[in-house]
Structure formats: structure tokens, C-alpha cells
Design a protein that fits this description.
With 194 residues, this protein is mostly helical. The chain has eleven helices and two strands, in the order H-H-H-H-H-H-H-H-E-H-H-E-H. The relative contact order is 0.17.
Length: 194
């Protein structure tokens, strides 16, 4: 069996490997999935991504399948219920920010036609290829993520610092940060030119 070379960060955890191989860095233009990633990335702030990934399905159940229309309507009682849900990350400010962000997500959709059009405009609607040769060269934020972070904050989004935003950009394929030695790097690069 041929040895597959992956980015080192996913280790050998089957959940992490599957995420790396099938989702991370794949360009996402679907608003529903972009909102899911945005919500999960804001909860990830200060934690490891694998922690969030392991709770992803619990988040899906707790947050109405990541439906921004429903989340935007959450009440204080629903926040209290979520604070007692051991299946998610129980952080009141992050839960409250999910409600605020859902409402603002809908506002951006109305104003720009889609959230996808808005965020992808920051990379001229094409994935950026950083040609990362080593994990040591993998940034945690960039000038571009600073710019997108500031734009989101100006709208009113919460928990969208530059590091969170850059992780969102990586996850949704706005940047191809797979190591050049990783089998997914070439696949995604070729898909971007089709």
C-alpha cells in the first residue's frame, strides 16, 4: 500500500485525518457551510480545533443544524439551556456571540447577495496559494486576515479576531495552506485551476 504524505498537524486521529483529507482547505462557497465554519471557529478561539471537531455533531444538534435564521432568534432561556449542554463548549459569551453573529450573517446576505460573495471578495474570489514548505512557515494570521477581521468587527461580529478569521479562511479554502508535500496540496491546486 502506497504511503500517503499529509500535513503533520492532523496526526493519526481518524477524525482529524478525515477532516484533513476531505474538508480542510476545500473551497466553500455555500453560505450554510460557511456559517457552520464561522460558528465553530468562534467557539474554537483559545482551544484546539480537535476539541471542536469532536463536538461538531453535538453543536449541530444544539444549534438547530447551524441554521442562522433560528439561531438569530434565540432567547435568554435558550442561552441558559445551552450553558447546561455538556456536548458543546459552554462559554456564555461565545454562545451569545453565536446569536449576534447569526443575525449579522443574515444582514450580510441581504446586503451582498450572499455571505460567500462578501468573504470571497477579500481574496478576489480565488483561493490563495501560499506554497507552505514547512509547518514552521504556516502563519496563524496574515495582513489579509487582519483586514477581513476588521471588516467583520466593523459590521459587529464577535470573536472574529485575526487568528480566528485566518483559521476560518484556511478551513474554507480561501487559502491553500496544505504543505506542498501533502497529497491534498496538489489536488486542491489543480481543482482551483479547473
Amino acid at each position: 500500500m502506497k504511503q500517503v504524505t499529509r500535513c503533520h498537524w492532523c496526526g493519526d486521529d481518524p477524525l482529524y485525518v478525515a477532516y484533513h483529507d476531505h474538508q480542510w482547505g476545500v473551497p466553500v462557497r455555500n453560505d450554510a457551510l460557511l456559517f457552520e465554519f464561522l460558528l465553530l471557529e468562534t467557539f474554537q478561539a483559545g482551544l484546539s480545533w480537535i476539541t471542536v471537531l469532536r463536538k461538531r455533531e453535538n453543536f449541530r444538534q444544539a444549534f438547530d443544524q447551524f441554521d442562522p435564521n433560528k439561531i438569530a432568534q434565540y432567547t435568554t432561556n435558550q442561552v441558559d439551556q445551552l450553558m447546561h449542554d455538556a456536548g458543546i463548549i459552554r462559554h456564555r459569551k461565545k454562545i451569545e456571540s453565536a446569536i449576534i453573529n447569526a443575525s449579522l450573517f443574515l444582514k450580510v446576505q441581504q446586503e451582498y447577495g450572499s455571505f460567500s460573495d462578501f468573504v470571497w471578495s477579500f481574496v478576489d474570489h480565488q483561493p490563495l496559494d501560499h506554497r507552505v514548505a514547512s509547518i514552521d512557515h504556516l502563519p496563524s494570521k496574515t495582513e489579509l486576515s487582519d483586514t477581513l477581521s476588521l471588516a467583520l468587527k466593523k459590521i459587529g461580529f464577535k470573536f472574529v479576531g485575526s487568528t480566528v478569521v485566518y483559521a476560518f479562511m484556511q478551513a474554507t479554502g480561501m487559502v491553500n495552506d496544505h504543505l506542498v508535500t501533502c497529497f491534498r496540496y496538489k489536488e486542491l491546486k489543480e481543482a482551483a485551476t479547473v
